[in-house]
Specification:
Length: 463
Amino acid sequence: VVYFRNLPDSLTSLLVLLTTANNPDVMIPAYSKNRAYSIFFILFTVLGNLFLMNLLTAIIYNQFRGYLLKSVQSSLFRRRLGIRAAFEVLSSLKETPASSLKMCSCDQLSAAQFQKLFEELDKDAIKQHPPSPEYQSHFMQKVQFAFGHRYFGYLGNVVALANIISVCVVLVMDADKQPSERDDFFLGAINCFFILYYLLEMLLKILAMGLKRYLSYPSNRFDGLLTVILLILEIATFAVYGFPHPGWRPEFMGLLSLWDMVRLVNMLIVFRFLRIIPNMKVIALSSTTWVSLVVNWLCSFQVVFYAFAITGIMLFKGPVISCSAANTTHDNGTLQCGTYEQLEYWPNNFDDFAAAVVTLWDVMVVNNWQVFLDAFSRYSSPWAKIYFVAWWLISSVIWVNLFVALLLENFIHKWDRRCQRESLSDIEYQRTVELMFRDVLEEPTEEELMEKLHQHPHLHLCR
């Protein structure tokens, strides 16, 4: 009666069950009659969600990977062809400049060496950190070695973890207490101790690394800024409320009092754990490729997002808001549980572009997306389900899973043993997406390059 009244409702219920958004709600009416009916829903979930959907994701990704591989292979061929064309043109000049193809007074660059030169030039140096100061004192050298070592950074991560745990324990213990009953002595003492440690850690790192080298690392800049802010707020707290003591309860003044600001900034310590990424060299090396993938994925996905938002505004603008005004007089308790009206999903509509984007995002997450299918099919047309199913297929099934697959492949590639044997110096280099397909890319042969060059209408080379 509820989920399988007719064929369209049955198809919709099973389609939503593929995403497990209506599980176990869709099973409960039949399961209440006979427990054996659960076998039907369990088999459908296993075959549909765990097998079919993952198989569909693998097929989509494999097709896209083939297209991407073909595109990268074509790009590699054009790059090699352009470099070889430049080499042939420079070699054919009667008066070759001394700095063009000469390695020294007697040697000339070969085609392979010329190509190797461009490969090295293509590695754009991102950043080279300044050198550490050189101390003459033997004691200062030991101090520099101790506090400039990576283990000192690991200690800072452990202390940050201890800070988070201690603050969370105090806040949980005070959660059920009234503000007038709370004793903030322990939290104030914890703040004092950890802020002093962060200040000491920052000063020792500056002593060991030098100010310029210390500031050259983004993680150090973040830690230093955070430490300075905490120190200023702590000093201001002492000036206003005095030093922590048993029974210490700073007054609450306004929405964000000075004491509340100290607590909020203290929570930023959790981001100190992002400093572990540079210590994991393989992840740090692949992060630039991840950023490139994220940017390219977002640029293409926002086009699809924009097109569906505009289409949704054209199809569904108006009916939901008008029904919202008509239902304001009804008691929420009399409405059917789990419906669009009972859940008060009225802000999720297509009356403007911003609302359309949020609605599409909620559907893409597929949590309670059956509510949108039911509501818009009732308020506009039963064919509205096609729009939402198409958006679910394109956004959640194709684009999101494709993005996850690309990240996984890039991560697995960077963990390849041959990649781990590469020496990583203090200079970071920009890497391209071609490295993801380095093992399967085919270098163009000499014959293919020369044949393509001789076919060029504006390039005349001697055979």
